[in-house]
Amino acid sequence: MGRKLLLEKAHVEGIRTYDVYRREGGYASVEKALKNMSPDQVTEEVKKSGLRGRGGAGFPTGMKWSFLAKPEGVPRYLVCNADESEPGTFKDRYLMEFIPHLLIEGLIVASYALGSSRTYIYIRGEYAWIPDILEQAIAEANANGWLGKNILGTGFDCQIYVQRGAGAYICGEETALIESLEGKRGNPRIKPPFPAVKGLWDCPTVVNNVETLAAVVPIINLGGEEYVKIGVGKSTGTKLISACGNINKPGVYEIDMTISVEEFIYSDEYCGGVPNGKKLKACIPGGSSVPILPANLLFKTAKGDTRMMNYESLSDGGFATGTMMGSGGFIVLDEDQCVVRHTLTLARFYRHESCGQCSPCREGTGWMEKILKNIEYGKGKMSDIDLLWDIQRKIEGNTICPLGDAAAWPVAAAIRHFRDEFEWHVLNPVESQQRNFGLAHYADPRPVPATA
Amino acid sequence: MAEEKKLFKVTIDNITIDVEPGTSILNAARMIGGDVAPPAMCYYSKLKGSGGKCRTCLVEVAAGSTADPRPMPKLVASCRTNVMDGMVVKNITSERVIDARAGVVEFLLLNHPLDCPICDQAGECHLQDLGYDHGKEGTRYEFGRRTFHKHDLGPYIQLHMTRCILCYRCVFTADQLTNKRVHGVLDRGDHAEIATYIEKSLDNDFIGNVIDVCPVGALTDKTFRFKNRVWFLKPVDAHRDCPKCSGKVTLWNRGDEVYRVTARKDQWGEVEDWICNECRFDKKLTSDWVIEGPTKVSRQSVISQGHYVGVKRPKETLGEVLEGRKPRLLMDIHDVSEVNKPNIELSKIAGPAHSDDFSKK
Hints:
The structure holds two protein chains of two kinds.
Chain A: H1 18-23, H2 28-36, H3 39-49, H4 61-66, E1 77-82, H5 91-98, H6 100-114, E2 118-123, H7 130-143, E3 148-151, E4 156-164, H8 174-181, E5 205-209, H9 210-222, H10 224-228, E6 231-232, E7 235-236, E8 239-245, E9 251-255, H11 261-266, E10 280-284, E11 293-294, H12 295-299, H13 311-314, H14 318-321, E12 329-334, H15 339-353, H16 359-376, H17 382-395, H18 403-427, H19 431-434
Parallel strand pairs in A: 1-2, 1-5, 2-4, 8-12
Antiparallel strand pairs in A: 3-4, 6-7, 8-9, 10-11, 10-12
Helix pairs in contact in A: 2-6, 2-9, 3-6, 5-6, 6-9, 15-16, 15-18, 16-17, 16-18, 17-18
Chain B: E1 8-12, E2 15-19, H1 25-32, E3 58-63, E4 76-77, E5 87-90, H2 95-110, H3 126-134, E6 157-159, H4 169-177, E7 184-186, E8 193-195, H5 209-213, E9 219-221, E10 234-239, E11 248-254, E12 257-263, H6 277-282, E13 290-294, H7 318-321, H8 333-336
Parallel strand pairs in B: 1-5
Antiparallel strand pairs in B: 1-2, 3-4, 3-5, 6-9, 7-8, 10-11, 10-13, 11-12
Helix pairs in contact in B: 2-3
């Protein structure tokens, strides 16, 4: 059983309320940080912990904090990115719904480290009931002196505000989020300047994911050195994985990055295997944007090593034979699932969520969706598959924000690994409407290249 | 303080130039000029915050600077990336750029209606130029092109949303030139559109400039709509004393008739001086203006056809021949014939004349 840091107390009755949370040792990190540490020491501790952004990109959080410009007389802001809208990802929702005080606690410590006296939580519009939970937690923290003026007599002021989004996936991109928070249309900004220099209201800003900020609490409580010991290599600490799809036990799991993918899917502690004795066909381990992997590449890397649930091992082999940790939206597909249909679903999502600001993404996402629709419904041509490849290639890397890449990668990976299935759809237009391609060879062991 | 300013040395397509710090790659390339300057569909040097959206100006940065000569991994938007000392940029010498640009042109034309034959912008359309310079002759798109619900923007400006490439220039123009912006981008993604949402008309002063900044035929002059093709018109520079704007304009004439008034544009198709609505929409008589001379038109432009410099008008000789006498009416046919029914005044008939108007009875 892996070590739990975030969800350890998640099942204590009434943990959502302040009294229970405090009784279980809550807000200890605020006391420790504000009374015994300077803001720079907190940042240093986060740096030492090796914590990586849990929103998807995996950028070291301590480094991000140290990039924050600190000009005199200019306010700095911390913004919590709770606009969790990636299909397959629902870990932040769980955290905010059941242990809101953990996030508030992490936010206070992070605000102290960054010198932000006005901190925002930008929450996804569809999470309509969660702002109430958070605001109740904030009110309780205020009432007990953890927020407001002169917290714990240290002279540090901090207030947290909750802002609801209006239902746009793109507002999870940090600069679009800032635009939206300022009350504008949620279009991503062109970088540079980066938010660390010019963010919210042109002031230095740090935008962090909910889980990242919650992870600050155990880091301060344990100390950075202790936190590094959990996990492996550069994948330190624990990670929340929201597992869904064809598994027996969908849900949010906290892993310490030392278990293998196979174990995660089949052990009873986690996903509990694929239902109805079906075989596993493919998996997207990090939320809809990351490349899909067939079963044979999921459990073993191209080199023949066991693939583990951590940043390095999941991305082993690059995009050719690997994928990414992403935001931890673990989607499992069994042998009855159609990869073409699945790719179409994702393409439709990205077409719908593109902000329309830059041309490759605005036009390309819609084009890909239309072609995929043709292939899925038996009207495709062989050349369409190459055309799709060419379109995704021309979107990737040429857009303002990563949504273009996120739209291109799933299509690229599907064609890379499941080209047979696309071709089968084209060659068997009638049959493809009646049955699925099935598992085919996607779970067969791959030949491992001999090493000297 | 005669302190010498430090200039940045930047190499674009193997041509080195010294520019002031803070110059964008695009502007540095424009200083070199010619083919080195990347095309720009959304960037407008006179509009703050514009650029970065269309992605036609993508270039490859082969070396970031002298201090950090690593290449940039992605292509960058040259209009929004500033030069660094010792930067090496590849525009038309980079395969990647050519390939990406061809992709962007294809994307921009994907849903464009290609209704150039009936579009007022034809002949001065940046998307047409871009298509000719960087596009392929065919399209790989096999689906219906998108359409929009029509919006009426009032008496001055005609909106054709299907032609729009969402460059946001008109939004910046309205923000930065007029007292109040009433239009903007609604919706998102491929169904994003320019509109006013509550069907307001665009009639703030200086709003007419959105017509000039629009790179395509999405926003055109309603007072000029379908009146003439730009290449049949003769652009002349003219000015008038205008209390609101500089009054420096280009008149688009045919004979002595002023068909259209626009701001003067430079070689990059950008407006030199913004002009007010009165100059643009209301002053359409030659007598309103002081003519300065023919506008310089690029040799590449279709407008340069039929555009002759130094043409002299033939002398009117009738007055001389008649020695000052007015031509005299010899006979009014209606005095002697009823065949044309002079009792029916044509100007009083509503609509075109019909046989009912000339009934035998």
